Each structure stands twice: as C-alpha cells, then as structure tokens.
Amino acid sequence: MLRISPLSIFAGAGTIAASLCAFAPAATSGSLETIRSQIQYLPIQSISHEFGSKTMSGFFVQQADACYVALMVIEKNALDTVPPPSAMRVRLVMSPGQVIGLDSEEGRSVNLTCGERAMTMLLDIGDRDKLVAEQTLALPNNVAKSH
Question: pLDDT for 93-137, tens place per residue?
Fold first, then answer.
C-alpha cells in the first residue's frame, strides 16, 4: 500500500502553485478603496490575488488542526517584458482564528484567517487601515492590550 505523508502533499502542491503563480487570475474586481470582499478557500485550493504592484499565489493544507500556508509574492509585469526579479516565498503555520496581513505600498491589503479546525482559509480584501484594525481585534485580549 502506498503511503503519502501530508508533508509530501504540501511540498508537491507548493511546486504546482509556484509554477502556476504567473498565470493565476486575480480574485478581485472594482476599486479596493471602496469595496471590501471576502473569499473562502478549502485546503489545496489555489489562493490568488493581486494587490497593488504585487501578485500573490499559493495554497494551504490542514495538518494537526493548523493551517500550513505557502504563498509566492511577485511583482506584476506585462507578458511582453522581462520577467520580474525572483519571487518571495512565504511559509506560515497558523492556528485556527489566527490572522496574518499582507500590505502593499499602494494602501491595498489582504488578511488571511485560518478557519475552525483549519478546514478553511478566509481571505479579506480591503483598505489597509480597516484590515489592520480587524487583525488587532482578532488578537487575544492579553496581547491586544499590550500594543
């Protein structure tokens, strides 16, 4: 019987996500200054979003009731131009309810929230100030009060 570890699935899916990063469509529409949206993802479902001058692509897997997240962040460029410098790979382990934020210099941001039992990932898209405030609200009381 063939046995595949969750880590092997995570590594294989990361390779696929990285190779598809440049071709993944954006998950937004309209002005992010005025529109706030939420998108829910399931494990190994492609997460893709453009914010400001960057494109983010990746996925998450559920392991030991935590979200193991792999993201690639690259500069956007036109297909007929020289490719941008190498991408930045971000690897995260998030507990359910934990929120991480990614911001662009243009004021557009995304928050990623690990869902209950790490079965889903919620992507919030919107204005940086509003998403930072929401991220602060998700902090445990003892951490939020010290900031």
Answer: 999 999 999 988 877 889 999 999 999 999 998 888 888 888 888
CA atoms within 13 A of residue 141's CA, in its CB half-sphere: 0
Token duo for residue 81: 């131009």
Degrees, nearest 5: CA angle 53-125-46: 80
Write out the H or E segment, with its range, that includes residue 51: strand 47-51
Residue 7: both structure tokens together: 């880590």
Which of 40, 43, 49 lies closest to 13 in space, CA to CA? 43
Closest CA to 114 of 73, 70, 66: 66
Q: Tokens 């494109």 map to which residue?
A: 55
